[in-house]
Design brief:
Blueprint: H1 23-50, H2 61-86, H3 101-110, H4 113-124, E1 130-137, E2 142-149, E3 160-166, H5 181-190, H6 194-204
Antiparallel strand pairs: 1-2, 1-3
Helix pairs in contact: 1-2, 3-4
């Protein structure tokens, strides 16, 4: 019996009319995302062809290896875009509600929500292309902010993406020049759907206790 795998279908997101992020930018961005879905399916098909006889021959190994290494880039490109589009909405809010679980976690790990936001914003402002991602460690109920280079380098195994911001230049170049990335980050927060963030926290199953005001940022180096 041959190898079977799931074929992914590009999701649709109605994000027309966002504050500070144009419909033209989003239209281009959606097309880019669809490309990651297509490439993920194509790579899975190619890898399945190599495995159709139940083994990878020595002469097949170079091509097989290149396809397999590329798969992480395409898969993460697909998933991170879905998370990014999914945590934005028209009429979003720059900050979560004061009684939200997310704010509790931010205060637990960073002392103050504002410190968490300064850390996340600073990561998004770093030179280079990639992602700023707030991840939850479900084992201890802590959130940490991370820089993910390209799509795959920097993700932490077992951690759950809670808030995802794309800072590749294609996410904002039609609206802001590269030197004004900070304005794009402000626009991203103006459109944040904190309800989705809360849903992701709830779905993680992590226990969230009372916040600690010790002022110590608990996050991995980046």
């Amino acid at each position: 019996m041959g190898m079977t795998h799931h074929h992914y279908t590009a999701r649709t997101f109605d994000l027309r009319g966002l504050h500070g992020i144009s419909d033209k930018t989003l239209e281009m961005h959606f097309k880019l995302y669809e490309g990651y879905v297509k490439e993920t399916n194509k790579l899975n098909d190619r890898i399945a062809e190599f495995l159709s006889d139940g083994k990878v021959d020595q002469e097949e190994m170079p091509a097989y290896s290149e396809l397999t290494r590329r798969l992480g880039f395409e898969y993460n490109g697909m998933v991170l875009h879905e998370l990014y589009f999914g945590n934005m909405m028209r009429g979003g809010s720059p900050d979560p509600a004061r009684d939200s679980v997310f704010r509790q976690l931010a205060e637990r790990g960073f002392g103050r929500y504002e410190t968490w936001k300064a850390d996340f914003t600073s990561i998004g402002s770093m030179r280079g292309v990639g992602w700023a991602v707030c991840l939850l460690d479900p084992r201890v109920g802590r959130i940490t902010n991370h820089w993910v280079t390209l799509h795959e380098a920097g993700n932490v195994a077992g951690f759950v993406p809670i808030l995802v911001m794309d800072v590749w230049e294609h996410a904002f170049l039609l609206d802001y020049p590269p030197a004004q990335r900070s304005k794009y980050i402000e626009a991203f927060f103006a459109n944040t759907c904190w309800h989705t963030v809360e849903e992701r926290l709830e779905a993680s199953g992590a226990e969230v206790g009372p916040a600690h005001g010790d002022g110590q940022a608990q996050h991995a180096p980046h």
